[in-house]
Amino acid sequence: MLFTPLHRYLGRQPGPLTDEMINDAVEAGVEEADDLDWKKNLIDAKDLVNSDFPKDVAAMANRGGGVLVYGVKERQGVAFDRCDAGLADENYQRTLTRVAVSRISPPVFGLRVFPLGSGDRRAVVVVIPAGLDGPHLVFRGEMFGAPVRNGPDTEWMKEREIEAAYRARFDSRQHADTALDNLYQELAYGKTTESHAWVIAVAAPRTPATAPSAPTQDEAQAMFRAARDHGRFFAGNGVVHAFDSMDLLNPRVGLRRWTAANIAHLPQDRWKRAWGNLHHDGAVTLAAVLGGAPNGPDTYLPDTRIESNRVEATIADFMSLLLAVSQARGTSEYAVKIGIEWRTGEPLIIQTTGDFGFVFDGGSIPLARYTPVTATVTADAEPIDFHWQIHGLATDCINQGGINNVRLISPPASG
């Protein structure tokens, strides 16, 4: 759910950006600020690279994020009239996001562009996330500089400010790594790893949620159900999904989170137990049993022998939960950690299925320990790019066991 500085200055609840909001801001004479900049016309696409646009984006990112609003006239920083910003079609929007990546160092990812209005009153709102790796630098002639917003103006950081920004970046990364490890240890704690192999998957947002308040139970339910649908799209219906074993319709409240609890309670269903959590800060966690799946009538695989397609489906479900939260809460970039935990004393075997449907484990590597896979995921990437991120994580997770054929997650061809 979107919550921008424009929402805040107008006293609006989280929700979509609308053309009416631009009218209301003009009528109210909303002033420019650290996180709000009024602009009249869009810059021609061919001129964007050498324009002030990279500087404006970097300055907002260095101050904590904000919005550029095109199609509004201002007088001494106060909005007083509408004008036509120009056309922002899909190609132009992609150009904006590319410039934010290619002309700023480190790049500013997660830019979102919203064309509004019509006729001669077209507006475009560019939502800029808080910088994750500040200070973000742009060229000043033949040198780099770090712009930053100061009220309605853009200034250049002094040496001490740049030093402080780098220190904040390194502290932030250390904090993020610690938070991710804590999520992982918390989720793994108490799981019956002495009798089953479990996948433990956690994701912590590197960008704060734009939604200002904790999700309600109805909102949590909607996110879980959206995630279930995403998971079936990414990995198909021909495999057991973690969501099949969760109570998605009645998420339970927890410590700053909502939990979809396990509903696979029967002894014969112990091989498909699963839990999912949506944390109020946008973090996502999922735990699911992978070992001991059925292997024929009334027979089951050993608890440390797992099928690669179950690994793929569980990763698809986890990433689908991350995607649903991102779309609802406004998070964009995540640090991710996925591992498999067991303590039976037996090595873990990941097996796959050959082209003719027969079980194949000739290339499997018995694992005494599984090294967790870590990655940075861009949740608001283009759909095909997000699909490839799931494929990449699944590849890393099964490759560790000597399996190289990802069978379920097949991103469509680009172009």
TrEMBL record:
Presence of the UniProt keyword Phosphoprotein in the record: no
Task: List residues of the Schlafen AlbA-2 domain.
Answer: 32-153
**Pfam families for the chain:** SLFN_AlbA_2 (PF04326)
Q: Does the keyword DNA-binding apply?
A: yes
Tell me the keywords, alphabetical order.
Answer: DNA-binding
Which GO-annotated molecular functions does the record name? Answer: DNA binding
- Protein origin, superkingdom: Bacteria
Annotated protein name in UniProt: Putative DNA-binding domain-containing protein
